[in-house]
Amino acid sequence: MIHFVETFFDIDRPTYRTTEGWVRFRHRFFLDYTLPALLAQTFGDFRVVVHCGKRNAAITQKLHWPARVDQVYGFGRHVYSGFPGDIAITRIDSDDLLRRDAMAAVREAVAANPEARRFAFKQNLCWDMVNGIIFDHVRSSTPFVTSVWARSELRDWDKFSAAHLRAHGGDGLGDRGALELPRRMVLITKHGQNTNLLKRGRAHPVFSEEEKAGLKAYHDDGKVWKLGWRTVDPVEIAAIVRRFGVETERRR
Q1: DSSP annotation of 63
Q2: How far apart are CA 121 and CA 112, in angstroms?
Q3: Exposed, middle or buried by CB within 10 Å (0-12, 13-18, 19+), for 171?
Q4: How many domains does the chain have?
Q5: CATH, residue 20
Q6: Residue 118 CB: number of other CB atoms within 10 A?
Q7: What is the pLDDT of residues 183-217, one digit of tens each?
Q8: pTM confidence score
Q9: Structural domain harbouring 59
């Protein structure tokens, strides 16, 4: 089985427009955080696919994409349809991180459940990089889904792309009925340039030390997340991030 990890970097969305500054920021963030976390995986036999849109193509075509990354436009028909067997596709946002053993957990779950077609990380961590907080981030519906597709499904590109790209793009997240994968293996990042802020025209909140210490809930993406476990300890945060393949000390 061929395995892909894909991210939708700047696909064209009608609800908001990205600036050149945003594109360059997210590209650098992907290279500094998301990609190192992928390259550090204990199971590394997968290809990385970055989906780009036409709107910013003049910019993204000139950006540096490492050899391990397949940068595609038009949703990558030539990438997904060129293999003789089944494929698995794991989705990760272009600014989020997988823990070192996350892909190994995915492959183990796929092997142990040959009849299942969807696997999802639902109980994750969230890293507010602006305020220095990491906390449990549990959601009933998640974009961090692995889908298994049979060769017969890939032969009909229109049907496959409609099911896969819609499920991962906005009209349903594709995790309904998915088997749940181990918790705390995805690190969602909040860095002040998140798309949920962009489409709402809002700035990332900055908390005082008193507000941070007394924080009981976290408002994000139009929702309220009740805080259970959390840490604001920089040493503990650095240790957690290290398990995701990133050394924060080197980025200061």
Answers
A1: S
A2: 16
A3: exposed
A4: 1
A5: 3.90.550
A6: 15
A7: 999 999 999 888 777 777 788 889 998 888 888 88
A8: 0.91
A9: 2-251
